[in-house]
Each structure stands twice: as structure tokens, then as C-alpha cells.
Amino acid sequence: MNSKKNEQPFAAVILSKAHDKKEANQIFTDKVQLRPLFLTPTSPPPSDAREVRRRRAQQKKQAARKRLKPKPLSSSQRRELGLYDVPREGQKYALFEPLHNLWLGYIREILGNEIYTGGEGAASKLCSADFHGAEVEVVRSGCVSRVGIMGIVIKDSKFAFEIITKKNVLKLVPKEGTVFRFRVPVQNQQQTETTKAEGNTGSGQQTDEKMEGLETTATTTTAPPDKPPPSMVFEIHGEQFRFRPTDRATRKFRAHFSKRL
Amino acid sequence: MLPFSPPSVYQTSKCFATHGKMGHLVPNQVPSKSKPWTTFASQDFIHRADLIIPQEVFEMVREALINAPAPQYKRVVMSLADIIEPDFMGKYIKSGSIAMLSEGRMGVDNVFTLRQGILTMYLDKAAYEQTGIVGKPHGAKGDRGLKPRWVVEIDLNSASMSPGKKGFNRLVYAAKNALGQPLRWLLYHLADSTPTPDPLVKHNPTTFTVNPSISQNLNTSVPDLKIAIDTNMPKARAKEDFEDISTEFYEWLSLVRLQSPRIQPRDQINHYLCRYQVPGDNIQEQKLCKISWHGFLPPWWARQTLVDILTTLPSKTWFSLSTTTFSKGLSGDNAECTILRLPDSGGEYLLWEVKSHE
């Protein structure tokens, strides 16, 4: 123990072998005993403005993501889970007919008297209406094979309508470049000569409306069986309608020129 | 709507001249593979036809062509839905050879033609998108975004075009919704095979007879109808020479068809007003006869007439038959086919085919 205390440190011994005494002492004190020990190599952070901004944006994003708990599903996850798929037993036209009747009641309630007159007021109401359960027919389309698809709307998503046809086939019809025609039969107590009212809407390119007139010679209370009941027919240009129903409710539609037409 | 008009490409009509030799005609067999016959068969419906022959052979032609039963065509107002009715389809389209043309100009309106069972619809963009049957773009290529036109071809003779099948149902749907308006049609059907009871009767067709109009004893100066191209010349020179000769003959033939006074023998027009001269040095004076038909005739009528002429006339005489089709497109140019058989040549002919811009 005594020998250990009196012994010089190993570094000093080696240094004294290479340098003379004064120098060895100096080197030993500067570079060995008082050697600076860096705790974190990159601190403090660089004071570059770009770096500062980048860090701040990253922190903000992480904070936002932290707020969305639980995290929303990605599209592939959604597809895998199949939450919005209609099961095979559920793909029946007959199942959705009550929904269609509900929709008819809803639309008649919304339109009120404008079901007879058509026009701008009806157009704006229809633009914000919901179309789940509507009977739709594809009338014109850039992809010609879609023309003639007719059925009840099951799902109204941002870019497409999911339609179930009378033959119990589920069809997904994109809204782009397609014109859809909807028909709302008018409930009458007695038949009167209804006039055609051409819809001259402010949201001009979005909806076109027509009234189908039915002429009778005498006042009858029931419709002749072979003629379709009088109804309000309107067409929607899918190009201008590519919004989710929730977003559409509050949207103000403006007339847009369409290159396709 | 948009401030500028859709693009239109105007191309001038092109004329293709052919110099060839016809083979012998086998009786009862209409040739269909070689050059003058394919050209006549590829035409659309014929509007006018002219036949020019020397007066001497008129009598021979009279029995064959003029005393034969004249072709008839009908004009009727129908819609597309009437045409694809099972009654009409079974009796006329599937069994017989019927040719129909609807009203309208091809580049502007929606025009339908029915020929050998193939229904061709020339539609604009709105009508095409509402019809729902797949077709091909029609017209000048390039810049297709602005209102192109479309052609839809449907073979009504095929087995898939019967009531109940999917393809046919699409056509029925289109005829009911998008193409439902009644149009005037010109209809040609062989008179001897009219079905009974006739499904056309309820549409009240008007029948027209195409009687040939004859102009006889036209005094004309006829050039030497001979093509003499020196085969020792270089090819480019020979081609130019042929172009000159064929253009001169075609010009002379057109003037004969118009019965122009410029080709009369003693024409005394001031050369400041007209510089035309009958081509060649050896100009003879002959009497010619011109027979013309004006109506709605299918292209196989032209082929049949050509066969009749070839079998009737002696092989040494010359003749010229020209057929003009209905015009297509905005400019109204017609397509035309003219054949001139040279005299004493053993079947040598010149054929001009004028193709209009589609």
C-alpha cells in the first residue's frame, strides 16, 4: 500500500520517459488530469434558422398525432377489415325498398311545394340533401358501359355511388363524367294537368330539373295502370358533385363550366 | 358556351387513278377480288350514276339496261326502335339485303346507315355518351377533348343480336332513350323478295322508281382514247406522263357528263374566256349517248350494272361508267368512282376513285 501511494501514475511514468521533466509534468496536467469530458457530442443544438423551423414543425406534427387517439385507419386497413362491405345475404334489392320509401318521404318533406314548381329553390335544397336510398339511373357517362345502370343508392361516398340493381348486383359507379337521374313520384289525391317547369338554377351545372306532365281528359282518382305516375325528375352532374354528404350539407354550389359537355 | 369553336380539319378530296386490264368475265359470276370491282363495292350508297357510250351501241344497251325492271327505293319515316323490332329485323335485315340511310349530314347530325346487316351510327359526343354502346372516335385525329364525333358499329346479323341477349338489350335501351326520335330513311330492297305481310306498310313508305334519263346523239369531239407511255423512259417521267394523261381524260369525261358546249366539234369560244382544248392531236367527231340514273342505289347495283354492260357491249367499244355517292361531312364533297374502258385494247381500263374527306 505504501509503495502504491508513493508510486507515480502510469501515464506520468511513460511521459517522463519521452520528455524531460518539466514538459512531462505540463503535458500530464493539461492533457490527462484536466482532460475535458464531453457529455453529449451535439449539444448545444445548431442555431441555423432552417433547423429551428424544421424542429418546430416536427414537434407540432407529433403533438397533433398525439391528439388523434385512437389513430384513424389507413385505407388498406379499412379494406382488410371490410367494415363497409355488404355481405352476400344483404345484397338484395328487396331489402332496400323500405329505405327507398323512407327516402321518398324525406325528399317530399324537404321539397314541399317545390316538387311541383322546380327551380332554384328546389335545386339548392336537393344539393344539400342526402341520397341514400334514392332510385337512380345513369343517363350519360364518359365510360359508356355505365349507361343504363339503375337501382337504389346504398352508399354515397366522396367519388362514387354504390348502387344495388334489381338483379341483386352491387355496382360501384364513379361520379366522374357521369350524369345521374333521380325520380320522385308525386303523391296526388286527384290528377291534374301538371305543367312542365324547366329548372333554371343558379347552381346551373349541378342539377337540371324537369317535370313530367300527365294529361288527362277527365278527373279520375286513380292513375291508369300502364302510365308511370307523375314525378319530378332531376339530373345531377357527378363531375360537380364529388363531395361527401357531410361536406355537401354546408357547401355553397357555384356554376362551373364543364369541359366534357 | 366556350368562346372558340371546336377544331375542324379540312382535307381536300383525293383522286386515285389506276390503269389496268380487266380479265374475262365468267358468266353468272360477279368478280369481287380485283381492282375495278373492289372499288365499286367499297363505295357507299350511290346518288347518281352516268353511263357514256358511243351512239352505235345504244340499241344493244337498251334491252339490257333500259327495258329491264327499273330499281326502286322507298322513303319512310321510322325511328331506330322500329328498325330493331323483331318483325322488321327478321323479315328484312336477317334474311334479305337491305340498304338504309337516314337523314342528316354526317359531320353535323346523327346519321345512321344500315348496310349488309351492319348498323353504323355516326354520333356526336352527347348522343354517344347517352347511347351506352362502345364505339370508336371518328374524324380528324388530334385534340380529342373538344367534342369529337364517334362511330358505333353493330352487326345486326350476328347471333348475339336477338331479343333477350345483353348486347341487344343495350341497343333497345339506347333506341328507347337516347336515339328515340323518328327520322326519314331512304330504303332499298330488292323488289322480288318483298316479304308478306310487309312490316313496312304501317310506316307508309313512299316508293320512287329510278328511271334512267337518256340523252342521245350528242355531237362531241372525242380524243384518241389510247395510253401511250414509252416504257424506256425513267419511272418518274412515266409517272408524270401518266398523271397528265389520266387528268386530261378525266377532265374530258367530266365535260361529256355535264354536256358542256366546250367539247362540241365546232366550238368557237374566245380563248380569253376558256382555254380548254380536247386533249390529243387525233380528234374525231362522234355521236355519243349518255344514260343517267338519279336516286338511292346500293353499291352492288353498280357492280351488277358494270357486269351487264361488259356482257352486252362488244369488247372493242369504249364506254365510261361513273357513280357518285351521297356526300359526307360538312363540306359536302362527294366520293366518286369512274371507269373508262379503252377501245380495241382487250380490257384495258382507267379507273378514277375520288375519295372525300371524312
TrEMBL record, chain A:
Alphabetic keyword roster: Cytoplasm, Endonuclease, Hydrolase, Nuclease, Nucleus, tRNA processing
Lineage: Eukaryota, Fungi, Dikarya, Ascomycota, Pezizomycotina
Extent of Polar residues compositional bias: 189-206
Biased composition range(s): Basic residues: 52-70
Matches recorded under HAMAP family: RNase_P_1
A GO term, aspect molecular function: hydrolase activity
Signal peptide range in chain numbering: none
Protein known as: Ribonuclease P protein subunit
Predominant location: nucleus
GO cellular component term, pick one: nucleus
InterPro entries listed in its UniProt record: RNase_P/MRP_Rpp29-subunit, RNase_P/MRP_Rpp29_sf, RNP1, Rof/RNase_P-like, Rpp29/RNP1
Family that this chain belongs to: Belongs to the eukaryotic/archaeal RNase P protein component 1 family.
Organism: Rhypophila decipiens
From TrEMBL, chain B:
Pfam families with a match to the protein in the record: Ribonuc_P_40
Species the sequence originates in: Rhypophila decipiens
GO cellular component, one term: ribonuclease MRP complex
Record-level GO BP terms: endonucleolytic cleavage in ITS1 to separate SSU-rRNA from 5.8S rRNA and LSU-rRNA from tricistronic rRNA transcript (SSU-rRNA, 5.8S rRNA, LSU-rRNA); tRNA 5'-leader removal
Membrane-traversing stretches: none
Protein name (database record): Ribonuclease P 40kDa subunit-domain-containing protein
Gene Ontology molecular function, alphabetical: ribonuclease MRP activity; ribonuclease P activity
Coiled-coil region list: none
